[in-house]
């Protein structure tokens, strides 16, 4: 909980309670917007529903623009924020596996749990599959370790990699997002409508 | 009627949202830029500046040098000329104007050593300390009084007068011992040596004294 708990505005004990409340709310929003349906999620790959792309792209954009404004106004110190470290090949290979699982099973890990909560059998199978994957990974960790911990690039961001002014990057990124939305709408109109 | 109007407007809702997104992200580009503070906040810097915690006394530094404490790094922030004339033993010279060079960052911005900055008095060292402290460098100390104070306390300690406390005398003797370590020779030291020489010089004449042998008991009852 960002600046509130470390600064003692909210006591430490509330940490997990707030996390549970946010989790419940997040799950509720996911389910009520149809994200527990594997057909909707897989729609991105088949071109009949781009809700996933739109939602996650917009969420990233809103968060990014909001953080930059807050940083500009001095409410948030962006240098203090956590940047996830980059393990290049681990991320690429993991991303490919995750993408394959996504298109084959029709869920991402978060939405699969959401779908389990509403009792979908395919989601239950999917979660069991995740557990088996976790088990295999942990058993063969010694084998995967060089990939898992190698190709470390530190806590880099796209702005560092491209060396662009961050504000211009945000602007260009939002233009790309809007173009992607328009383009995805264009594709959706071309493909056959599927009711689900 | 209302519904139809609403439908007319809502046809453009995605277009409007896209425009809004472009507007606010474009606003970010157009906002007037200002120089951001690198390092710590100004309030924090001020409170650090006011606090005298950064000072380290000459006695402490002397004991660090004598005990060869490896966790301290002495940095002379005076110019090279003065450094070559005199500096503390094992000190590194980083003149104030070269303080923010790339080469000197390795000395200043690290967690392994405690850095002691010093100059002739503590003003130049304080300036260096403020610059480094603002960049959030850790473990920085300043030698209180600088080299002048070093001379007045360690190299040439003032002799306590008779009416001063016993503690002053103890302090004086430790400082004196420290100064001897740094190569100061005291007159009494020299005298003592002379005395030693004199003592050795005169040969003792050993006069064997013969003990009278006890006479064996004669006669008797």
Structure overview:
The complex is a heterodimer of chains A (196) and B (221). Chain A is built from nine helices and two strands. With 196 residues, chain A is mainly α. The longest helix of chain A is centred in the last third of the chain and has 25 residues. Chain A is globular. The mean pLDDT of chain A is 87. Chain B has ten helices and five strands. A five-stranded parallel sheet of chain B has the order 1-5-4-2-3. In chain B, helix 5 links the parallel strand 2 and strand 3. Chain B is rod-shaped. The mean pLDDT of chain B is 83. Chains A and B meet through helix 3 and helix 9 of A and helix 2 of B.
Mind sketching the topology for me?
The complex is a heterodimer of chains A (196) and B (221).
Chain A: H1 14-32, H2 38-46, H3 51-73, E1 86-87, H4 88-105, H5 109-117, H6 121-139, H7 141-149, E2 152-154, H8 158-162, H9 166-190
Antiparallel strand pairs in A: 1-2
Helix pairs in contact in A: 2-4, 3-9, 5-6
Chain B: H1 2-10, H2 13-30, H3 42-50, E1 55-56, H4 58-66, E2 72-76, H5 80-85, E3 92-93, H6 102-108, E4 114-118, H7 123-134, E5 140-143, H8 146-155, H9 166-181, H10 187-200
Parallel strand pairs in B: 1-5, 2-3, 2-4, 4-5
Defining traits:
heterodimer, A: 196 residues, mainly alpha, two-stranded antiparallel sheet, 9 helices, globular, B: 221 residues, alpha/beta, 5-stranded parallel β-sheet, 10 helices, rod-shaped
